Amino acid sequence: MSQSVRIILLYSLMFAALVAVGFAQSWPLALAILNMCLISGIMALGVNIQWGYAGLFNVGIMGFAALGGVAAVLVSEPIRGEAWSVGGLGLVASFLSILAAAVAVGWVRKHLPQRGRGLITVLLLIAGYAAARQFFGPAVGAIEALDPTIYGNIGGAGLPVIFSWLVGGLFAGGAAFLISRIALGLRSDYLAIATLGISEIVLAVLKNEDWLARGVKNVSGLDSPVPSAIELQASDWFISFAADIGMTTIEASTVFVRGSYTLLFVIVLALLMWLTERALHSPWGRMMRAIRDNRDAAEAMGKDVVARHRQVFILGSAVVGIAGAMLVTMDGLFTPGTYNPLRYTFLIWVMVIVGGSGNNWGAVLGGFLIWFTWTQAENWGPQAMEFVTSGMAGDSALRLHLMDNAPHMRLMIMGLVLLITLRFFPKGLIPEQIRR
Amino acid sequence: MIDILNAIVLFSNFVLIPGMAYGAQLALGALGVTLIYAVLRFSNFAHGDLMAFGTAATILFTWWLQSMGVNLGVLPTALLALPVGIAAAVAMSLVMDKAVYSFYRAKRSASVVFVISSVGVMFVLNGLTRLLIGPDDQRFADGERFVIRARDFKDMTGLDEGLALRTTQVITVVVAILVVIALFRFLNHSRMGKAMRAYSDNEDLALLSGIDPKKVVFWTWVIAAGLATVAGVLYGLDKSFKPFTYFQLLLPIFAAAIVGGIGNPVGAIAGGFVIAFSEVTVTYAYKKFLGYIVPGWEPDGLMQLLSTDYKFAVSFVILVVVLLVRPTGLFRGKVV
């Protein structure tokens, strides 16, 4: 079976499964799953850029997705002048103190003799931190005291939320740049652990820095790039339109809103797909594969391996950041407490491995398939348990306990899917195609 | 003079003793990670969930013992159930090795393939643990809670500050010392331990000299799973058991192993204590302590360097500094 037939066939099957959900359950649900599939596909694409093109093992995807999410808040929330006037100066001052300390450290490391500069570095860092704390505390206190029930944060830039997709990419790419300065060039396991740490720290900051995006108090009611369902339900043309297609107004408006998101997401995915495919089949893509397959040989040919790795690490993380911003935009709320590494990091990895690492079409298909399975498997666990325990008495403690915890079965299912794919189909559903 | 004593007692109560206990737990965890790394040559991402699995099995058996009316008096019943938990974790590890890792070992796959498959194992263990015991917090410590109560200490010494010493903290340190002594005796003096070290240093030479790789792998999993369960049960006794917390322990444990020099058992122990004490000292609020040391000075803030929510950042920063300054770790580890 040729590659393109395989791609068309598998995507058609996936599409048929989604349509089946539409007929069997409901169209709003099918669209909701499809939208999440699209976002998962984009995240998987980002990871595939890092893993499939360059063999970088990044387990901090959750952090990059969350950075994209916070971009949605910071771009679309209204400008809050009063918060900036009470605390803006302090925030800027503390930022400048950190910057000054960093610059001073850079100068010391460059110009002073090796002896004793370690001590001076440490002292400078402590001084910078102390100065920043001096400004930071009062400023944050003042900002958080303003309307704490609704705001208590610095607000945003008051721009349309759709810009945040770009900004989210920039945030995630910026963070990836900082990490790449530290952890790239080291062994693969160390990069994994460094990214795992970064993602936990990003989440800790987002949960605890209430002045930024309200922390665990969450931000809801974000600006939406598509018409809201309530607006639609109130407009006359839409009511008659819904009647024409034979749906209730409420169902039709949900379908309309979700369908608009689907359209937007498809545009983004298509654009990214086009770019990544172009990159993969360019001389640059050939160079990346050469580095991945034989790093030493590529280095001997004069390729700057670390610089290329850095490039691809930043690009892939930026794609994940874009997907993170899209996710928060669609939900209309930002809830740092719900980011969980199993769901936002390791599940994405399952998608890439199952779909086919090194092949963009495969990674995106993996995103679709695994997300679809993940949502459906929520019901499989309890159903399977129901079957297993059907011989037991209805109120037996063991049966109740097993039924209670059955939804966690899907973690196990995902683990098994990953292990089985890795062992028996290591190339994934749509294998990488080697072009000469 | 009294103020200085008060300051010392305060510091011991909130930094020294908790740091010792936490350090011992991290050291045991890091020893497991480092052993797997040294012998099987990959970073085992499933280690945190292996800890959770072994601990869950121990807790279930503890509950059964308690329901049968068996207990250890002043000591927690969980110590009696520990061998059962260890057996469960060892069995699970051996099954996973047979089903997953042995295939890649035979193929001599790249280490990153092992790491990714350990992520798969992590998912499976995670799901299994939650199925067994649920995702919620469980407390299973029983017996006498304190060796010294804060109030008794105050009455005894007449100081203003109390020193509380929990039974679990003493048990943690004692058990950790015993386990570490046993482990080092095994590694340095037994035939199998020497074979393991030889295998870790140079696989081909070890095979040439007639060491059975299957036995080496078997004993590595037995020891790693045993260490993981002991570390998990001690942590659970000291704090509480929650599957997700154990997954998150992965970061400080890896940090400890790498800081000490991954693949080096002495390094893992040192690294555990370095990470634990850094976390505790950096997130401790020094207000009262400084009040005793510098009489008449009342600091405005809490004098806390970092809020406890950022304790992950501490292990991470230490990790980064070590990677930048001395990539092989404090004690020279191996870098494959």
TrEMBL record, chain A:
<keyword id="KW-0812">Transmembrane</keyword>
<feature type="transmembrane region" description="Helical">
    <location>
        <begin position="156"/>
        <end position="178"/>
    </location>
</feature>
<feature type="transmembrane region" description="Helical">
    <location>
        <begin position="346"/>
        <end position="372"/>
    </location>
</feature>
<dbReference type="InterPro" id="IPR001851">
    <property type="entry name" value="ABC_transp_permease"/>
</dbReference>
<feature type="transmembrane region" description="Helical">
    <location>
        <begin position="7"/>
        <end position="24"/>
    </location>
</feature>
<feature type="transmembrane region" description="Helical">
    <location>
        <begin position="408"/>
        <end position="426"/>
    </location>
</feature>
<keyword id="KW-1003">Cell membrane</keyword>
<feature type="transmembrane region" description="Helical">
    <location>
        <begin position="30"/>
        <end position="49"/>
    </location>
</feature>
<feature type="transmembrane region" description="Helical">
    <location>
        <begin position="87"/>
        <end position="107"/>
    </location>
</feature>
<dbReference type="GO" id="GO:0015658">
    <property type="term" value="F:branched-chain amino acid transmembrane transporter activity"/>
</dbReference>
<dbReference type="InterPro" id="IPR043428">
    <property type="entry name" value="LivM-like"/>
</dbReference>
<dbReference type="Pfam" id="PF02653">
    <property type="entry name" value="BPD_transp_2"/>
</dbReference>
<dbReference type="GO" id="GO:0005886">
    <property type="term" value="C:plasma membrane"/>
</dbReference>
<feature type="transmembrane region" description="Helical">
    <location>
        <begin position="119"/>
        <end position="136"/>
    </location>
</feature>
<keyword id="KW-1133">Transmembrane helix</keyword>
<feature type="transmembrane region" description="Helical">
    <location>
        <begin position="56"/>
        <end position="75"/>
    </location>
</feature>
<feature type="transmembrane region" description="Helical">
    <location>
        <begin position="312"/>
        <end position="334"/>
    </location>
</feature>
<keyword id="KW-0472">Membrane</keyword>
<feature type="transmembrane region" description="Helical">
    <location>
        <begin position="261"/>
        <end position="280"/>
    </location>
</feature>
<protein>
    <submittedName>
        <fullName>Branched-chain amino acid transport system permease protein</fullName>
    </submittedName>
</protein>
UniProtKB/TrEMBL annotation, chain B:
<feature type="transmembrane region" description="Helical">
    <location>
        <begin position="20"/>
        <end position="40"/>
    </location>
</feature>
<keyword id="KW-0029">Amino-acid transport</keyword>
<dbReference type="GO" id="GO:0015192">
    <property type="term" value="F:L-phenylalanine transmembrane transporter activity"/>
</dbReference>
<protein>
    <submittedName>
        <fullName>Branched-chain amino acid transport system permease protein</fullName>
    </submittedName>
</protein>
<dbReference type="GO" id="GO:0015188">
    <property type="term" value="F:L-isoleucine transmembrane transporter activity"/>
</dbReference>
<feature type="transmembrane region" description="Helical">
    <location>
        <begin position="112"/>
        <end position="133"/>
    </location>
</feature>
<dbReference type="GO" id="GO:0005886">
    <property type="term" value="C:plasma membrane"/>
</dbReference>
<dbReference type="InterPro" id="IPR001851">
    <property type="entry name" value="ABC_transp_permease"/>
</dbReference>
<dbReference type="GO" id="GO:0042941">
    <property type="term" value="P:D-alanine transmembrane transport"/>
</dbReference>
<feature type="transmembrane region" description="Helical">
    <location>
        <begin position="163"/>
        <end position="187"/>
    </location>
</feature>
<dbReference type="GO" id="GO:0015808">
    <property type="term" value="P:L-alanine transport"/>
</dbReference>
<feature type="transmembrane region" description="Helical">
    <location>
        <begin position="78"/>
        <end position="100"/>
    </location>
</feature>
<keyword id="KW-0813">Transport</keyword>
<dbReference type="GO" id="GO:1903806">
    <property type="term" value="P:L-isoleucine import across plasma membrane"/>
</dbReference>
<feature type="transmembrane region" description="Helical">
    <location>
        <begin position="47"/>
        <end position="66"/>
    </location>
</feature>
<keyword id="KW-0812">Transmembrane</keyword>
<keyword id="KW-1003">Cell membrane</keyword>
<keyword id="KW-1133">Transmembrane helix</keyword>
<feature type="transmembrane region" description="Helical">
    <location>
        <begin position="216"/>
        <end position="237"/>
    </location>
</feature>
<comment type="similarity">
    <text>Belongs to the binding-protein-dependent transport system permease family. LivHM subfamily.</text>
</comment>
<keyword id="KW-0472">Membrane</keyword>
<dbReference type="GO" id="GO:0015190">
    <property type="term" value="F:L-leucine transmembrane transporter activity"/>
</dbReference>
